UniProtKB/TrEMBL annotation:
PROSITE patterns: SULFATASE_1, SULFATASE_2. This is Arylsulfatase J isoform X1. Residues 76-388 form the Sulfatase N-terminal domain. Coiled coil: none annotated. Keywords: Calcium, Glycoprotein, Hydrolase, Metal-binding. PANTHER family: ARYLSULFATASE (PTHR10342), ARYLSULFATASE J (PTHR10342:SF69). The keyword Calcium applies. It comes from the Eukaryota. Its cofactor is Ca(2+).
Amino acid sequence: MAPRGCAGPLPPPPSQAWVWPGKMLAMGALAGFWVLSLLTYGYLSWGQGLEQEEEGALRPQAGESPEPSITANSQPHLIFVLADDQGFRDVGYHGSEIKTPTLDKLAAEGVKLENYYVQPICTPSRSQLITGKYQIHTGLQHSIIRPTQPNCLPLDNATLPQKLKEVGYSTHMVGKWHLGFYRKECMPTKRGFDTFFGSLLGSGDYYTHYKCDSPGMCGYDLYENDDAAWDYDNGVYSTQMYTQRVQQILASHDPRKPIFLYIAYQAVHSPLQAPGRYFEHYRSIININRRRYAAMLSCLDEAINNVTLALKTYGFYNNSIIIYSSDNGGQPTAGGSNWPLRGSKGTYWEGGIRAVGFVHSPLLKNKGTVCKELVHITDWYPTLISLAEGQIDEDIQLDGYDVWETISEGLRSPRVDILHNIDPIYTKAKNGSLAAGYGIWNTAIQSAIRVQHWKLLTGNPGYSDWVPPQSFSNLGPNRWHNERITLSTGKSVWLFNITADPYERVDLSNRYPGVVKQLLRRLSQFNKTAVPVRYPPKDPRSNPRLNGGVWGPWYKEENKKQKPSKNKAKKKQKKNKTKKKQQKAGAFPKCHSGVTRG
């Protein structure tokens, strides 16, 4: 049984990766060469010698200092950590009462992204990270992918791990997928990852790894590659379990070969669960949801510390780029805080889409800085492919930009706008109309766009309160303390200067109708490039009861694509004879509707 807490001990590396394949005499000679090299040339020249040695070379023992040049490879190791539902305020360097010493230190030594945007909910952010495309260009404009839906990230999109594999990267995913799984082709291992260990759904119990989507629709949701990981059904807290798997991956990988690690932690998404010892520092927090959330975040912070330690211990750190991001804003009713931003998870107010994010790497040119240039989650796709020395096909229309020079050197961002989204099937604003959009855009449609300093919202943007820290009473966010906004009658358009007014307190739509029209035209232009929304109805075949008690692929190819059996062939012959008789009699054969495909 693994120890309690979020930081399991570093696993010992496999013996074959640590012992030189020779006799003791050879080992002694190697040790002598090591000492001589250190005295004569120093660490750098010894590292150059290691580059020429074969794969069985010695690695540092756990706890030893890593060799600075052990990973002398022009392709950096790429480590992307995605937290779930972490609020904008919920990090120490944004003034939170929650202690996050690891995140604070990594961010302070790296580059803090303080004009960084994601999507307001899980699936959209993850899809845009892995494809470099806006939701309107993948058909995932509306909501999330539900467990019972025959839907997944479209198979015709080249994913980030697929592009990295093309240039020699080993690709591993640990954590939450949430990009669909109804077909085997939708699984992470079929979308570019060499290995996958984690959950397929959007949420679940942190200890049992079970999820109920509705009464009678419950199942186990923990996978090892393409199979249910029943061996891990032993009550280990997911943050700890995922961290241990990351340690194991690093311990068994050759640091001279590039690796892409996508670590998508379940924390701090509901249900609010954490090991008991993490509550000790937060007894003063009255609100139970906030206290549990704080404990979960402290556990996550400790996990990030242990991932960083593993990178150093096993010789990856000096040639690594660590990117940390939340997938959307926090949910106040589940303990999260976005103060002083407006709104929450699931909305297009800043509190739903402006995220905690930073880059930490020895490879950064300007360390210890703050980047206030515009950066979006779609930008990681071209940025990481470029860093990996990969190629992006010219015919692929990406929405992301390569922002490495912006982050590392402080140059201006190539990005001047962000389409936050256009959702044509979200609940329409009652007071919206084409007339309200100057004949350019139907303002009943939920949409949001950022162009330079300006941000425009139309339709129903979602929960619009500001929720200050003192609003967390014992029963949850107390409406008494909230700053509530009653939307004016007929209101379906909002305009803000986000640079001057990041908290969205002063609506300028009536003062600058010309700017409104310009942004409405930009929305209209984007909408012309949109693909149809993919949001199919529930499929009863998805019930885990029909799949061995596990959430997993349920879709089967239609029988007509398979070779017909003898009995089916005979039935087909009889049907053909019947059809011929009907045609001879002047009757038309009945039309059979095709089976709907997801």
